[in-house]
Amino acid sequence: MEHTGAMSPTSSSTQTCLLLLLLLLTWVDCNIDHTQPSSVTIRPGEALRVTCKVTGASITDSSYWATAWIRQPAGQALEWINTIFYNENKQERNSLKNKFSVSRDTSSNTITLQGQNMQHEDSAVYYWVESLEHTQPSSVAIRPRENLQITCKVSGMLITSSSYYRTAWIRQQAGQALEWINAIDYDGEEHHSDKLKNKFSISRDTSSNTVTLQGQNLQAEDTAVYYCARDTL
């Protein structure tokens, strides 16, 4: 994925004490109002609070399903932090649950990530991820060497709109980090993981406003949770 930001040093004498978090809160399925800037500088040991306001859907609606926070430290794999569902059930990564928490405010339709005792190693791009409407069941069983096809229907914006930007597929195998598979831009340009480009392809249908992931010769090691996510400008 392309990111419109980079870590930059500061000329302040307290440079070594500052932590720059690039909060490019993308990969979402609705319009998002950010309640703080896209980058935040805090001192080690301080707390972090990031809130996103959801428009176009109610966070208590079962069709909204869930909101997740993930992050990507520079040069490292994507890392899932936590998830909150429409019914307020939560899932948390064991290694991070003592540092991060997630909450919501139904009156303002907002989702908040809170972090405590932040350190230099927590410098990362933090993503806010919302589930999409799937046009097939949420789980699919196939035999080894068979093909996979998963389609997501996008609502609230045309996939050909320049403000829509990009649809991406990512997956998470049990006990492993999130892994980016591929993406397709609003203008139809495709992007693929070098590792997975011979196994997975991506396509879209502008008449139905859907984006489809196709996989061939799937094996047991391809068992995973597959996410369809939208990247907005």
In summary, what is this structure?
The protein has 233 residues and is mainly beta. The chain folds into two domains: 15-130, Immunoglobulin-like (Sandwich), CATH 2.60.40.10; 133-231, Immunoglobulin-like (Sandwich).
Task: Walk me through what this model shows.
InterPro entries: Ig-like_dom, Ig-like_dom_sf, Ig-like_fold, Ig_V-set, IgHV. Keywords: Adaptive immunity, Immunity, Immunoglobulin, Signal. This is Ig-like domain-containing protein. One of its GO terms (cellular component) is extracellular region. The chain has 233 residues and is mainly beta. It has 2 domains: 116 residues, Immunoglobulins (Immunoglobulin-like); 99 residues, Immunoglobulin-like. Helices cover 0% and strands 43% of the residues. The chain contains no helices and 18 strands. The strands form 5 sheets. Strands 2-4-9-8 form a 4-stranded antiparallel beta sheet, with no helix packed on it. Strands 7-6-5-10 form a 4-stranded antiparallel beta sheet, with no helix packed on it. It is globular and about 50 Å long. The chain starts with 18 loop residues before the first strand and ends with a strand.
Identify the notable features of this structure and list them briefly.
signal, four-stranded antiparallel β-sheet, Ig_V-set, 2 domains, mainly beta, 43% strand, 18 strands, Ig-like_fold, Immunoglobulin-like, single chain, 233 residues, IgHV, Ig-like domain-containing protein
**Strand order in the largest sheet:** 2-4-9-8
**Unreliable runs:** 1-37
| Helix fraction by DSSP (H/I, runs of at least 4) | under 10%
The named CATH superfamily of the largest domain: Immunoglobulins
What is the residue-averaged pLDDT? 77
Q: Could you say which structural class the secondary elements and strand pairing correspond to?
A: mainly beta
Instruction: Quote the beta fraction.
Output: 35-45%
Number of helices: 0
Gap between N and C termini, in Å? 13 Å
What is the name of the CATH topology of the largest domain?
Immunoglobulin-like
At the first level of CATH, the class of the largest domain is: Mainly Beta
- In total, the number of strands is 18
The largest β sheet comes out as: 4 strands, antiparallel
The dominant shape is globular
The arrangement of helices and strands along the chain is: EEEEEEEEEEEEEEEEEE
- Total number of distinct structural domains: 2
Alpha-carbon Rg, integer: 18 Å
The CATH architecture assignment of the largest domain turns out to be Sandwich
